[in-house]
Amino acid sequence: MPVSLYASPPGVLFPRGSPQEWGQAARQPPGLLPAQCRAFSNNKILVELDTSSGVATMKFKSPPVNSLSLDFLTEFCISLEKLENDRACRGLIITSAVPRVFSSGLDINEMCGKSREHYAEFWRAVQEMWIRLYSSNMVTVAAINGSSPAGGCLIALTCDYRIMVENPKYIIGLNEAQLGIVAPFWFKDTFVKAVGHRVAERSLQLGLLHSVPEAHRIGLVDEVVPEEKLQEKAAAVVAQWLALPDHARQLTKSMMRKAVLDHMLAHREEDIQNFVNFISKDSIQKSLSMYMEMLKKKKS
Ligand SMILES: CCCCCCC/C=C/C(=O)SCCNC(=O)CCNC(=O)[C@H](O)C(C)(C)COP(=O)(O)OP(=O)(O)OC[C@H]1O[C@@H](n2cnc3c(N)ncnc32)[C@H](O)[C@@H]1OP(=O)(O)O
């Protein structure tokens, strides 16, 4: 069921290069990796595929906080498509190479002081990321090794399973309301599917960022582990899910996710227009600028 890039209306996303060119410049020189391991890397994401297990690990490496810029999202979708089309790959672990942060969510700079055309292009890329990950045939596990607000939390929620490192400093949740913005319906639907309606309603209205134990308690993350056990645990979970026949697991996943996915696909253009109209408002631009100021002040 994954939605093909090539089926997208022409020119909507990925203006950069043909599939054959993706990541070639940054490919690892032969001999540096074990024979059963293939790697490709662009600027912001590193992917390593272990062909013996059929499991790829995708590491976000866009310091300081892995914010989801248009470039990041484009790389993310290209990497996903490459893996989806690779018969050697059946499972995917998503994690961060940046200390203490999984992803800080959408890059706020992409939503401030830009043109309406830019907002539309950016939002289409956010949608594309979600559509690809939500409809992936691969087993997807988020190995959350740092804070993960808003869009970062959405990536984790979109996976099949979430494991988070126990650390009193890490937080996770859909905190959009705290920024004076509103999580769109498909963020909300993905969240409700994980935690249930009541918990989601309270958490979304208050824009809560949950501690790790709290996130575990409400079902936002499935498991909590010490940092040193994360990789091992994620590999064990993927192996457990991959032990089932692919067709049965994939059809079940597709059945469970169909209604939410179809709803989004049916309202995709309307959702882009809503975003552009909302984000272009002076009052929203002011809220986002104040939030960025607050983030900077917090440091000093
Ligand atoms: C119909 C309308 C629909 C609208 C829907 C819109 C949906 C939006 C979804 C989103 O994802 S909005 C983004 C929400 N994200 C956040 O609120 C996270 C903000 N960041 C943090 O809380 C923290 O940065 C952190 C992730 C907990 C990490 O903390 P740490 O102390 O390690 O780093 P900082 O010093 O705070 O940040 C370093 C550096 O990075 C900048 N930055 C942080 N987050 C973002 C971001 N999301 N976008 C852009 N830039 C970000 C931060 O300002 C610092 O910059 P400098 O001061 O170093 O220049």
UniProtKB/TrEMBL annotation:
<keyword id="KW-0413">Isomerase</keyword>
<keyword id="KW-0443">Lipid metabolism</keyword>
<comment type="subunit">
    <text>Homotrimer.</text>
</comment>
<dbReference type="InterPro" id="IPR018376">
    <property type="entry name" value="Enoyl-CoA_hyd/isom_CS"/>
</dbReference>
<keyword id="KW-0276">Fatty acid metabolism</keyword>
<keyword id="KW-0809">Transit peptide</keyword>
<keyword id="KW-0496">Mitochondrion</keyword>
<dbReference type="Pfam" id="PF00378">
    <property type="entry name" value="ECH_1"/>
</dbReference>
<dbReference type="GO" id="GO:0004165">
    <property type="term" value="F:delta(3)-delta(2)-enoyl-CoA isomerase activity"/>
</dbReference>
<comment type="function">
    <text>Key enzyme of fatty acid beta-oxidation. Able to isomerize both 3-cis (3Z) and 3-trans (3E) double bonds into the 2-trans (2E) form in a range of enoyl-CoA species, with a preference for (3Z)-enoyl-CoAs over (3E)-enoyl-CoAs. The catalytic efficiency of this enzyme is not affected by the fatty acyl chain length.</text>
</comment>
<dbReference type="GO" id="GO:0005759">
    <property type="term" value="C:mitochondrial matrix"/>
</dbReference>
<comment type="pathway">
    <text>Lipid metabolism; fatty acid beta-oxidation.</text>
</comment>
<dbReference type="GO" id="GO:0006635">
    <property type="term" value="P:fatty acid beta-oxidation"/>
</dbReference>
<keyword id="KW-0007">Acetylation</keyword>
<protein>
    <recommendedName>
        <fullName>Enoyl-CoA delta isomerase 1, mitochondrial</fullName>
        <ecNumber>5.3.3.8</ecNumber>
    </recommendedName>
</protein>
<dbReference type="InterPro" id="IPR029045">
    <property type="entry name" value="ClpP/crotonase-like_dom_sf"/>
</dbReference>
<comment type="similarity">
    <text>Belongs to the enoyl-CoA hydratase/isomerase family.</text>
</comment>
<dbReference type="InterPro" id="IPR001753">
    <property type="entry name" value="Enoyl-CoA_hydra/iso"/>
</dbReference>
